[in-house]
Amino acid sequence: MTIDPLLSRRSFLASGGIVVAFALAGPALGQLAGGGEGSAGPPVLNPSLPGSLKSSPYLDSWIQIDPEGRATVFTGKAELGQGIRTALMQVAAEELDLPPRSVTLVTVDTSRTPDEGLTAGSHSMQDSGAAIRNAAANVRMHLERSAAKMLGVAVDAVVTQGDGTITARDGRSVSYAEIAASLSLHVEAIADAPRRQAGDFRTMGTNVPRLDIPAKTTGGAAFIQDMRLPGMLHARVVRGPSEGTRLLLPPEAEIRAMPGLFKFVRNGNFQAVLAEREWDAIGLMRALQASPFELARDPFPTGAVGETLKGLPSRDIRIVDVHQPAGQPVKRLSSRFSRPWLSHGSIGPSCALAMFDHDLLTIWTHSQGTFDVRRVAADLLGMSIEKIRAIHVEGSGCYGQNGADDVAAEAALLALQVPGRPVRLQWMREQEFGWEPLGPGMITELSAGIDANNRIVEWRHEVWSNPHNNRPVNAGGVLVGNEVSPPFPIPEGKPIPMPEGDGSRNSNPLYDLPNMDVVYHFVKDMPIRVSALRSLGAHLNVFSIESMFDELADAAGQDPLAFRLAHMADERARQVMRSASGAFGWKDRKKTGQFHGFGMGFARYKNLGAHCAVFLEVAVNQDTGRISVRRAAASVDCGEPVSPDGIANQVEGAIIQSLSWCTREAVTNTGTLRTSFDWSEYPIMRFLDVPESIEVTVEKQSGQPFLGVAECGQGPASAALANAVADATGVRFRDMPLSPERVRAAIVTL
Fold it and tell me: Would you say residue 477 lies in a domain?
C-alpha cells in the first residue's frame, strides 16, 4: 500500500489516525523556514525580532490566511501536555483579532513549520509565543493596510472587529477572506508592529477550553500510542534486560523459522522482530529475550550518589564569585543534599511510527526534538535530509529525554526494511525502565553564615552532577546508533552554560546576598545513561537553597517567610511570596500536633523565567513514616498571562510531579542490572496521595513579556515539602526521596 507523502488521505482518519498529525495547509516541501544544527536551534537571521522570529522572519512561515478568512498558524514547538496548542492559538487569535474557532494551530512538522529547536526549558511561550504574537500583529497590520487601500481610506480610519472583518468609519467593511487572495505574506516581520492592548483583549487572558483534553478524557485517539495506519506492521526491539547488557541469541535460521514472524532484522548488535499482529511481535520478543545475556559495559555503581560522583574526575566551573563588604558571621551552618537517579516514569512507553514510500521516509514521533529526529535519521541511514519528514504527535507522558528519540530512530531503520508498509514500534514497560536515559543523580554542599543582625553575609554552594542534556543530534546519541555495525561514536557530554545551565541551573540564588561563591563540579563520565529530566539541576539546587534558608531562619529565630523577604530585592519575587502566603493563610497557621507542619519554597526558574512560591501543609504518620500533603497554595508570575487556567494546570502538575520525586522515586540497580522495572519497584504518586487542595494564584502582569512557566514549580514544591516535614518532626531530611521507610526510621523514637 502506498501513501501520499503529505498524508492527506481521509482513510487515515477513518482508521484511527490522529487528526492534528495530518492536518495540512502550509508551505510546500522545499519552502521550509528555519534550519540550523542540532538542538542548538537554527541560525539567527534578524536579531532585532522577538523570540523565534529571529531565525524565521518571514510571516508566511508562521501564518497563512485562507480564502474563507481562516488562519492557519505554525509553531515549531510540540504539545507535550503543557497546553501550548491552546495558549499559542489564543495568542494568534488575539493579535489577528479572530475568534478562536477561526484559527488552526499546526505543531512541529519538519515539512511545514519553522525549526524552533527543542521544546524544552519552558521556552515555548517565551520563544514561539513571542514570535507568533509579533507575526500575528504584523499580519493584522498588513490586513488593515490592504483594507484601507480597498476602501480608499487612511489606515488609521479602519479597525478590525474580532470576527474577520475590517470596518471603516463610514460603516463600509471588507473581510479577511476578500483580502486574502491578493495579500502576500512572504514578507519579513518588523519588530514594532502595533499590538493589541490588554484592555481590548478578547481571547488572551481568558480560559479557553484546552484543545488537547477531549480525546484524553473520552478514550479517543489522543496519543501516538493510539495511532494506527493502514497496512501497519508491529515491531519490537529485542535487547537484554537493561542498559549495558547484550543478548546471546540462537542462530538466525532458528529465529526466522519462528511462527508469527514477518521479518527479523539484525544489524550488528541491533535486533528487532516485525509481525502482522502486535501480540505476535510481543510473543516473539519475549521468547528471544529469554536467551542468556552478557555484560557489555563496566559495572554500575552501587554506592551512594555522592560517593559515586565524587569518585569521578570533575571540571570546576565557577558560576558566581561575588564579594562585597558585609558584617562578620556569628553563626555558620553547612549542609549536604542529594537526589538519586530518577526515571521519567512515562505512563505510555516510548513509541514511534515510520514509513518509507516513494523515496520519502516519514517518522511520527513524540520526541521533544522533532527536527533533531530528522537529523539523527539522516545520519543513521545515510539519507539526504530532504528525503525525511518528521511529524510530532503527542506522547503519553514525558518531560525530558526518555526513549522517544531512541524509538524514533529504530522505527526509521526498520521502515527501510519494508518499503511501502508503515511500522509501529513500541517499547515495553521493562524496556523503558531498563534502557531510557535517567535524570542524573546529584549532590550539593552548602555553607552560609549570618551576622549579628541576622543577615546572610556568607554563602557557598557546590554542586556535583553529570551532564543533563545528552539529547541526540546525530546517530551516536541514540541506542541503535551505538549497536549497528559499524557503530557511531557516543558524543561527549558537555555542560550547558549559564544562565540556562544544566546541573548548575538555579544554583545562583536570586536573593540579595553580599558574598557568594557558587561552583559547579561538572562530572563528564556517566556511570549510568543520563540526560534531561524536567527542570534539570534546578530541582536539587532550589531544594538545597530553600532548605538552607529555612535552617538559617531557624538559627536566626525568624519566620521563614520574613527571613526570605528580608533578603529579596526583586519586587516580583516578593509579590509571589506575599500572594501565595496570603492565599495559604501563613500568618494564621497553627500546628495541631507534633507531626503536623508547614513549609514554603521559592525560586525564579533559571532566574529568567517565571517566579513561583509554594506553601504546603503536611501531616506525618509516626507509625508508617508516610507524609500526607493536606493542602498547597502557590503563586506564579509568568508575565502577561495568556491562559490563566492553563498556567494553573502547569503549576499544579509541577507540584504533584515534584512531590512524587521527593517522596518516592529512585532508580535501583545492582552492579549488573537496573532493577526498578515496574511500578512496584519504581512507585510514583497515586491519586490518593495528591494534596487534598491545590490553589494557584496567577499574577497579572499586563504588557510584560511571556515567561516560561512549566518547570518553575519543581524546586519550590520539593523544598516546601522538606521544610514542612522538618517543621512537623524536628528532623531535617536532606537526601531524597523522603520515603516512608527513611522518615519512619528517623522519627520512630520521637
Answer: no
Strands 456-465 and 388-392: unpaired
pLDDT, averaged per 10 consecutive residues of the chain (750 residues), comes to 30 29 27 34 92 96 97 96 95 98 98 95 93 98 97 96 97 96 95 95 96 91 95 98 95 97 98 98 98 92 94 97 96 98 95 97 97 98 98 91 97 98 98 97 98 98 97 97 97 95 98 98 96 97 98 98 98 98 98 96 97 98 96 98 96 97 97 94 95 96 93 97 98 98 93
Please indicate, yes or no, whether residues 642 and 683 belong to a single structural domain of this protein.
yes
pLDDT at res. 21: 28
pLDDT attached to residue 750: 83
Q: Based on the domain organization, do 163 and 234 belong to the same domain? A: no
Q: What is the dihedral of CA 527, 368, 611, 550, to 10 degrees?
A: -20
- Overall domain count for the chain: 3
Question: Over 155-171, what HEC string results?
Answer: HHHEEECCCCEEEECCC
* Residue 533 domain-assigned (yes or no): yes
Rounded-to-integer distance, Cα 123 and Cα 385, Å: 26
Residue span of the structural domain in which 733 resides: 442-468+503-747
d(CA 369, CA 472): 9
pLDDT at 625: 97
The confidence score (pLDDT) of residue 40 equals: 54
The CA distances from residue 429 to 242, 350, 374, 404, in Å, are 12, 9, 25, 13
- Residue 548 placed within a domain: yes
* 332 in a structural domain: no
191, 218, 245: which is the final residue of a domain? Answer: 218
pTM exceeds 0.90: yes
Give CA–CA dist 508/517, Å, rounded. 9
Asked if 63 and 136 touch (Cβ cutoff 8 Å), the reply is: yes
CA gap 85, 65 in Å, rounded: 18
- Which of 411, 435, 459 is where one domain is finished? 435
Q: Are strands 270-275 and 263-267 parallel, antiparallel or unpaired?
A: antiparallel
Q: Are residues 244 and 167 in the same domain?
A: no
Q: Which residues contact 265 (CB under 8 A, 6 or more apart)?
A: 271, 272, 273, 274, 413, 414, 417
Closest CA to 433 of 737, 683, 684, 675: 675
pLDDT score, position 28: 27
| Residue the block writes with cell 513509541 | 351
| Shared-domain flag, residues 536 and 572 | yes
pLDDT at 4: 31
CB 383 within 8 A of CB 390: no
In sequence order, which ranges of 557-684 are alpha helices (DSSP H)? Answer: 560-566, 571-584, 644-663
